[in-house]
Amino acid sequence: xxxxxxxxxxxxRELAREILADRATPERLNELDAAGGxxxxxxxxxxxxxxxxxxxxxxxxxxxxxxxxxxxxVAIEAVAASAAHIPLYEAILLGGLPVARFGTAEQQARxxxxxxxxxxxxxxxxxxxxxHPAHAPATTASPAADGSWTLTGVKTxxxxxxxxxxxxxxxxxxSGRTGIFLLDPNTAGVSAERQDTISGQPAYLLTLRDxxxxxxxxxxxxxxxxxxxxxxxxxxxAGVCARQLGACDAALRMTAGYVSQREQxxxxxxxxxxxxxxxADAYIDTEGIRLTAWQAxxxxxxxxxAAEEVAIAKWWAADAGARVLDAALHLHGGIGADLDYPVxxxxxxxxxxxxxxxxxxxxLEHLGALIAGR
Length: 374
Description:
11 helices
């Protein structure tokens, strides 16, 4: 177990940080907010694609970098630390990686080059109203004689549904067997209603009424979808941990700088014992998130059993992350609530990260079941 980044991973981190520091400035983020409507920073996405950061883990023959999961999570952490308005996690980890891993040669050739080049987007619809798990969706899939399928059901909190070329949709056939379908969100029978989330990134409620999926857009046939979800969901959860690490680390650094400069009673407030102790606790929590996140990511990269490690990492990211980001906002005082000041972005993103794919209580329950089942 070695969490030291190798030369390639360090290069990815430095390149991502350099571009994001220059392009995802607080002023630029405020400008995007003021414009209203579209959250997505297309210009920055194109620059990252040109630098090779968008297609990092995608196959080289599809225009990607052919790197591993570690490199992708390094980039995801950097994006989260910058609070940039780009969907690296959603488009690449949730949408692109499953196609790269499980897609046919035709599906990969059709969908991945545009994704790697930053021209198109992919996404995934993993959640349903009522909390139906992705492995046992309420959304139904009905076959046609020509090999196509029609999907009926509702998916919630779907990212990029307004612009994705395809959305990965788990759906079950009449026998309850789950398949994974590449749905065109613009096809007949699909309606998308915008949902405003706490992080500020829009999501969509997708309602499917006999929405057609062609035979060549079946990613995993019913009965085979569980294998893909068993592979994807731990990686999706670990990716959330990388996002939370980026948010916490950035907020902690911002807070340390603030309490070192903000003076009260003739001295920096960081010299007061209560402030110093709280930021020290936040540092310890952030390091706990860092160590558990990279342990889980590393084990997934190595193909080692990682179910317990992913649950532990997500518990730390959710539970400790909430403490870190609450401390960051609190120690900033009134300026922490100023929307022109960037620390609130990490706090709001952290709330999304806290509960995405299971909050702290859900992770403890899952971890307990794993331990009991040994």
